[in-house]
């Protein structure tokens, strides 16, 4: 499910709270490449990316502001700065049970995503998709901070399959000075491309984010 922070403005400019949230996708003076995609378009990509990652269960994606994601980053990771994406896995999950069980949440800063899209020379839609894929891999159990490059290889495989440009980890390796992910931390893709980690009984609690895209 795609969720929109009511404080998020498509132009990143002050706007009356009287404007309905749905108007965010219909009213903007930004160039097309910088505009937010529709929730329906993002939901389609989310389903496609989940299938590619082989991640079953419901995932919520919150599109939010730098200010809000900074609060989350400070609270859960002890880092008092904005980031691009945070992943909040559900603490418990049962495989092969109800299809709609929650698997976790992603929070993405649209403001940071827009800046990174401009740096990379592609549209905001593309950057949001890159961030969603990165976050989904974390929800699937991958962690580029503690493996031997497996998440990097898996992200490379899937972003190519999904028609996306460089992933966050690849960017960090190629341009350390402008890294959005820690260059020394890719993740898990053994021969079967499956992450390690155990799943227990189901539940909806969240734990500390496994990782953000930026260090």
Quick structural summary:
This protein is α/β, with parallel strands linked by helices and 215 residues long. The chain has helices at residues 39-53, 66-77, 110-120, 124-139, 150-161, 168-174; strands spanning 2-4, 58-64, 85-89, 102-109. Helices cover 34% and strands 11% of the residues.
List the helices and strands and how they pair.
Blueprint lengths: L1 E3 L34 H15 L4 E7 L1 H12 L7 E5 L12 E8 H11 L3 H16 L10 H12 L6 H7 L41
Helix pairs in contact: 1-4, 3-4, 4-5
How would you characterize this protein structure?
This protein has 215 residues and is α/β, with parallel strands linked by helices. The chain has one domain (2-178): 3-Layer(aba) Sandwich (Collagenase (Catalytic Domain)), CATH 3.40.390.30. Helices cover 34% and strands 11% of the residues. The protein is built from six helices and four strands. The chain has helices spanning 39-53, 66-77, 110-120, 124-139, 150-161, 168-174; strands at residues 2-4, 58-64, 85-89, 102-109. It has a four-stranded mixed beta sheet, with helices on both faces. Strand 1, helix 1 (39-53) and strand 2 form a beta-alpha-beta unit. Helix 1 (39-53) packs parallel to helix 4, helix 3 crosses helix 4 and helix 4 packs across helix 5 (150-161).
């Amino acid at each position: 499910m795609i969720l929109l922070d009511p404080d998020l403005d498509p132009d990143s400019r002050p706007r009356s709270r009287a404007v309905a949230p749905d108007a965010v996708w219909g009213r903007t003076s930004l160039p097309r490449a910088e505009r937010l995609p529709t929730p329906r378009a993002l939901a389609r990509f989310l389903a496609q990316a989940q299938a590619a990652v082989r991640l079953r269960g419901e995932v919520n994606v919150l599109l939010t502001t730098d200010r809000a994601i900074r609060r989350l980053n400070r609270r859960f990771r002890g880092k008092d700065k904005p980031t691009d994406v945070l992943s909040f896995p559900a603490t418990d999950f049962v495989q092969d049970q109800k299809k709609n069980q929650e698997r976790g949440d992603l929070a993405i800063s649209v403001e940071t995503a827009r800046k990174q899209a401009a740096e990379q020379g592609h549209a905001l839609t593309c950057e949001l998709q890159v961030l969603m894929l990165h976050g989904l891999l974390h929800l699937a159990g991958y962690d580029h901070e503690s493996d031997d490059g497996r998440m990097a290889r898996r992200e490379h495989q899937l972003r190519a399959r999904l028609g996306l440009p460089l992933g966050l980890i690849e960017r960090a390796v190629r341009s350390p000075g402008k890294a959005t992910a820690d260059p020394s931390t890719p993740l898990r893709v053994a021969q079967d491309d499956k992450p390690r980690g155990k799943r227990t009984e189901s539940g909806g609690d969240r734990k500390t984010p496994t990782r953000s895209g930026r260090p």
